[in-house]
Amino acid sequence: MHLIDTHVHLNFDIFQSDLATVRSQWQAAGVVHLVHSCVHPGEFSSIQAIAHQIPELSFAVGLHPLDADQWNHQTAETIRSLASSDSKVVAIGEMGLDFYKANNYEQQHLVFETQLSVASELDLPVIIHCRDAASQVREVLQKWRHVKGERVRGVMHCWGGTPEETQWFLDLGFHISFSGTVTFKNAKAIQAAAAMVSSDRLLIETDCPFLAPVPKRGERRNEPSYVRYVAEQLARLRGETVEAIAAQTTRNACELFGLTL
Fold first, then answer.
1. Is the confidence at residue 147, as pLDDT, over 70?
2. pTM passes above 0.90
């Protein structure tokens, strides 16, 4: 059984001392590929170094919405240049809107839309972070599609929306990725969303080192090997085998990110 963890942060300090062991554990769990996200282009060199040590790791470059105040007139060109510099870059992101922890609406919109433009120019998918901003993210993507006449492809990562909100992004052609939050006891809306996503748009992730799934919830860090628990929960919610979930999400990840296993 093969699994792909479509969203990790392995360059964080919490993995520095034992990354080789963590890798052995994800390999033992059947994780055959990972996509490393990026919260700031300043991380590029550290992520790139890890990606070139680990053949099964691809990565992205972008600016997280909570870092939108660090955007300047050169940032778009930096992202464009870095993304073009390495064939292991498979996406732009993570980008998006987060109005749970910040209210700099105009700045976040500017940064989001400019990164969508970079992704469109480079024909790369986007990794979207969306928190307390589903309607606003939808509006941006609808404008991009209907006013600009361009269809952006990508994934709503670590999805936490309702079934109705989920359908908005399915209708826009997006993939939906579920993390350890789908295993949480009270995550009823997320679980309902996970049950209704069409099979060809479904992805799984850990978002490690955050959001460890049940039964590992409460541990000091999440790890890529734990993505199996996300797959098992999706299998329960959807009435499918974990092998079927693994095969479908692996196929979807390969298609979206252009991965070759």
1. no
2. yes
